[in-house]
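The instructor's notes for this session suggest beginning with a concrete chain rather than abstract definitions. Hand out the sequence below and ask the class to guess, before any prediction is shown, which regions might be ordered.
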Amino acid sequence: MILTLTANPSLDRTVDLGGELTPGGVHRIVAESTQPGGKGVNVALGAHRAGADVLAVLPAAPADPLLALLEREGLPHRASPVAAPVRTNLTVLSAPSQTTKINEPGTAPTAAEAAALQELLLGSASPGDLVMLSGSLAPGLPADLYVHLTARLQERGARVGVDTSDAPLAAVASALGTTAPDLLKPNAEELGQIVGVDGAALEAAAADGDLSAARDAALALHRAGVGAVLVTLGAAGGLLATDDAVWFAPSPAVRAVSTVGAGDSATAGYLLAQTRGEDPAGRLALALAYGSAAVGLPGTTIPRPDQVRPDPRGVVRL
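After discussion, reveal the predicted structure:
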């Protein structure tokens, strides 16, 4: 089974202005949608739409609108009750092909609510499961929560992936000597945060065909104990460091509509390929195909399998 934890879920509202965004101006919305959000929810949706056995774990009040959206999607989920409503994240689409995100921080859970969420996740995991810990942490949760959960889940025989940033990512990196996830999924900015380099420079160099810095950083994390390091490099493509080697695949050509959810879609593709026993080239190809398909869809739309075109022939070993 693929399990995901979304410790800070959201309602993702997307509005399209149909023109340019002018600071200080008055704008009219030409189209809008609200979808279930949070990185773990996005990963679970991608895997679920491909027919995988999935469970999304998250905190939410019993009557929260987010749960109704998950029911509408048919996504298997378990919610740990909390008193506060789920946050709302706003995505503004404007010309020319711009995406502006405005995210609420979320509400701090009580100590009892935080403990109940952790126990729900741990009680849902079985040996051999793939558990993805995704996204930001709600205010008040300890920065090393993902480190703690990784250790406890691995003790249960589960394989654990982490996709986060800032302080939680720094905590994961600091713990690599004792606790390392089986999968780490940074983008260029997050990879830069871990190894202390400019993430924008990593992505720019990759776009110019120089993959050396990103390759070396990903391989260093793998050799520090991370089972596999999947790095998304925007339009340049992506890297996978595992089995003491690095593979690269360029991003398939697609007209960009919204980049929101692309990294989560790539994670879903990777996990799907892993459950199917694909080799590193196949896992990277499906991850990049899912991420690129998401870029061509509006808002936080997670692609269906029929919208994904993997091409393992484009994967090369560096």
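Then share the key points. The chain has a mean pLDDT of 92. DSSP finds ten helices and 14 strands in the chain.
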